[in-house]
Each structure stands twice: as C-alpha cells, then as structure tokens.
Amino acid sequence: MSAPTGSGGFRYGPWDGGPDPLASPFDAAGALDEMSTHILDGRTPREALDALLRRGTNQRRGLEDLRRQVERRRREARARGRLDGTLEQVRELLDTAVGQERAALFPDPSDDARLREAELDALPADPARAVNALAGYEWRSPQARETFEKISDLLRREVLDSQFRGMKQALENATPQDIARVTEMLAALNDMLEADARGEHTDAAFERFMRSFGDFFPENPQTLDELVDSLARRAAAAAQLLAGLSPQQRQELADLMASALADLGMAAELSRLQQALRAARPDLGWGRRGRFRDTMTGDTPLGLGDATSVLEELAELDELAAALSQDYPGASLEDVDPDAVARALGRDAVDDLRTLQQIEKELERQGFLTRNAGKLELTPRAVRRIGQSALSRIFQRMDARGRGDHDSRDAGAAGEPTGTSRPWHFGDTQPIDVVRTVRNAVLRAGPGSPDGMVELDVRDFEVTETERRSSAVVCLLVDLSYSMALRGTWGVAKSTALALHTLIDTKFPQDTIHLVGFSDYARLLRPVELAGLDSEVVQGTNLQHALMLAGRLLSRHPDSEPVVLVITDGEPTAHLMRNGTPSFSWPPVPETLELTLAEVDRLTRRGATINVFMLDDEPRLVQFVDEVVRRNGGRMLSPDPGTLGRYVVRDYLRSRGGRRRAAS
C-alpha cells in the first residue's frame, strides 16, 4: 500500500487488509457457479448464460426484471389519456366562441343580427370546415373573436409541437418575429439534410445550425445523425397517431393542421422535412396504422403534441422491450440502447445493463468461456469447477454411511507407506520423503556453508515406498438419445458423468476414466465437450458401437482392471452395418440385439465388469439388461433419476475399495 508523504512523494508498505486491490471487479467465478446449475440440468453453455442474463446476478437485476419495469412504464404511458384531445379542444373553443357571439347578437333586433345568426346556424358539423367558414367572419363580440383566435394559436403550436418537442410551450404568446425564426430554422434544417443526402460533409453546417437554433432542441443532439433520429422518431409517432384515429377524426385533424400550416406559411418547409426524414429512416413504420389507439386507457384528452410524445415514448418502450427479450435471430445485449434504458428506467438500470453486458466478456477474459467457430464453449478450467460442483451436489445428498472414502487423505497413485524410502526416478508418483531429501543435500554439500542455505539437487530427492495399489480403467457410457431429454433424465446423466470424471481425476489419479456418448453413433467425449453438450435429436440407441469403442479404450490399459458403466433409458435400437453406417429400427430387430450382446461377450472375455444403470423400467429394457448381467456377471441397477449420481459414485467407490483390499 502507498501513502503520500510530506515531500509530495509516496511511501510504500505492506498491505494492511481490506479489499484486494488486484482482484477483478467482476466475480466471474460466481457467475459460472450460477450457470453451473443450468449446465448440470442438461443445458448448453449458451442456454445457461442466457438463463443467467434473464435472471440476473445476486447484485444486479436481470433482463426479466428490466422487461417487467418497461412493461410497467408502458402501462403508465397508456393510462395518460386519449389521443383526440386537440379535436376536443378545438370543438370546445369553437362552441364557446359561437356561444359568445350568439349572446352578443341576441339583444340586437336588426336584420343583420338575424342574418349572422343564420350564418352561425349553417356552420358545418366538421370543426375543420367550421373553422374555415369562420375565417373571414366579422365578430361582433370581442370575447368571441379572442376565443376564436385561440384556435389558430392552439393549432399552430400543436402542429409544430408534434414535430419539435417543446415547441408548444416555446411559442406560447409568440410574436411574428418568433414565427419567422421558426421558419428560418426549418429552411436551414432542410438545406442541411438535403446536403447530407447528397453525400456532402455537414459537420461544420451542423455546428453552425446548433449555435443558431439549438434552443429548439432540448434533447441537445451531438451529431446530425442524433438530430435526424430524434426528429424522425417523433414525426413517425405523429404519423401513427393520425393513422390510429377514426377516418372522420383523421380527416378533421388533417384539415385543421393544413389550415394552421397555411396560416404559418410553413407548409412547404414541413413537407420537405417530412420527406427527408422518411428517406433517412424508412424503418420507422411511416403511415402504419397506429397500434396504440385501442390500448390507451386514460380519460384525459391529450393535445396533438402530448399525444405524439406518448406514442413516441411507447414506440421506444416497444423497441426496448424487444431488445431486452433477446428472442430474435442474432440477438445481442449490445443491441440494447443504454440511453433508452436511462430514459425509461433511470441510471440504476443502466448499471444493471452494463453488468449483464460485462458477464460474457469477463467469463471469456478470466478463462471460463471460449469461442470455437462462433459457438460458446466451456474451458477446461470451467469444467473442473462445474465438475466439483456436481460432485459436491452428490456428496451432500449421500448419507454418512454411504460416502466411501472420497475424503481420504492418501488418495493418489501411492498406497500405505512401508517405512522405507528409495531414490526418486522420473515418473514416480510416490510422496517425497522431505527429511531424507534434505539430509542428502546437507551431506552432499558438506560443512561450512557460508550463509546456512541448503541447495537441493535432483540427486538428493527420495520418495517414500508404499504398498502397490491396483488401478482401474473406467468407461462410462452415457445415452445421448433424445428420449433422455423427453424423460427429463439427460441433465442428471450429464451431471453424473462430470462428477465421476472429477472424482477420479482429482482424488484417484491412478485410475483412468473415458466418457463415451452414444445415440445413433458412439464417440469419445472430452469433459469440455460433455459439459457443453445437449441431448441429440436423432433416432437410435447404438449401445453396440458404444461397447465396441469401450473395448478399444480398455485395450490401452492392459494392466488396469476394466470397468464399464452404462447409463441408459432404453433398449438398443441401432447397430453398425458392415459399411460403418448405423441401422435403426424400433422395435429393435434381432440383429441389433445379437450384435450388441456379441460386444458384451467380448468385454466379458476381456475381464471387464459391466454395470448398467437403467433410467426406465420398460419391460424390453429390463429383459435385455437381465441377459447382459447373466452373460457378464455385472449388476443391474434401477435408480430414481434424482439418485443416479449417488448410485454411480457409490458403485465406483465400492469397487475401488474392493480393489484396494485385494491389493493389500
């Protein structure tokens, strides 16, 4: 640790505890442990990682929690109000203005007053046509004139607000100069977008534009792409709002908007802008029928700008929910927009997302996951940890009397010490005799070592003589056929195989284990391959090929006791033909059973014991295994799938204890 000194330098000393400053900020091992539960249940590494991302970690929310929060926000947005608020406001203002005018005309007995009342009576029911009809009307009532002018002001602000967020408030009580500046902004924006579409460099133009008109854009876009994306999303939401109204409402609102734009003198510029935005972002579903009309549950009428904001938010929430679902081809967490997450759920949710995005990278960086031809695979380091987890799961369920000697401290190639030692030779696995080794070094160096240090040489080493312990070669044959997945037994078979491999590899290295998987074919499996394997959707249980392969593997260890363990849930239904291709038939043909039993006889003559763990009690399977046991002398076991691991590990430990006593 370091601390600042008075001279401005640093003084270093021993670390005094606390968090490890060199530790990784991310617990990749803990993430792997959470994944291991799914892997040991039979899932692939990709499926296990996806399950972890959906569920989340102990510290951070997962994708499912984030999606639930997004759905809650969608419900809140839909409850804000109706989409036809502008039409309702126009109707209310129009009715108010007409009522105020009638009140002013009623006391007047003149014919002009009666003609004006007749003109008001003849107004169209359509508010847009009524507004147009009253455009040139000379109001008697000053209050009515003021109310009617509010309609024009409302429409101008709502139309611009539906395109530019916040414009409704910005143009309240706007002067002609304010309107002229909006028109100037539109022209400059369109010129810049058209230049960009021609492939011209527009960085400098964008900076000038934002210096002049940045106050119109509260989102504060940093690039032209960001500005276009923001404007296009809002414009598309406005188009979907219109598409979601009834035909009559849509026509009325379109007419009112056209009238307002004509008053502003902006119709041409807004039309240019719409075309440019559609060309830049055609993927936003322009003109598509609004899917939100029937889902809006609130009673409050929303103005055109506010309704556009709601639909824009709902569209973004829809995209966010789809990205968080990760259920589309090529899905990646990098598809999730952190800015959209922040807007919808806050900064804490962004931290959760960052953690989820980091999991896969950290698992790869810290050596637990790797990629092979684009496929996610476990590394040997990860498989060792998962195997230990599988073994611990089995031992936790075993009662004390049935544990065997898995905690034995003399595990290894050596047996009990005999009390003598001998010089070490390359390849020896007996324990080093430390006392005799150091004594040899002291005697070789002689007296008078200047610094009192003892230097060891390879000639000094001695090992403790031990009783010879017999070794075994175990072939574990695991059924990979799809019936294992259908019956829900694939996960326990996979977990059992990994546990037994870990037990032998770490506790009893004098023994050897080979993992063989079989469906229509049989093949030797590396532990890494087995851990990442799913059951195979193929027809055939080719036990004949698996036993044939086991015989070849056993022949590599002529001095070891041969043991064959079979985990299966069905009778043999396939065998290899002379040309090496598998032949499948169900029910099995006599040839399949005969060839499979022939391999049993070969292994029996070799001295191999075959123990079969049946995961189903189908009569054909029981009858076949009875014949295997009769011919071989092994055992037939019918464990419940949940206890398979205990049965297999106990069987191995029991047989190993017998070998040890025989060797003594």
From TrEMBL:
SUPFAM superfamilies: vWA-like. SMART domains: VWA. Gene3D superfamilies: von Willebrand factor, type A domain. It comes from the Bacteria. Residues 471-646 form the VWFA domain. Residues 1-11 have a biased composition (Gly residues). Residues 398-410 have a biased composition (Basic and acidic residues). Keywords: Coiled coil. InterPro entries: VWF_A, vWFA_dom_sf. Residues 1-25, 398-428 are annotated as: Disordered. The keyword Cytoplasm does not apply. Residues 53-80 form a coiled coil. This is von Willebrand factor type A. It comes from Candidatus Protofrankia datiscae.
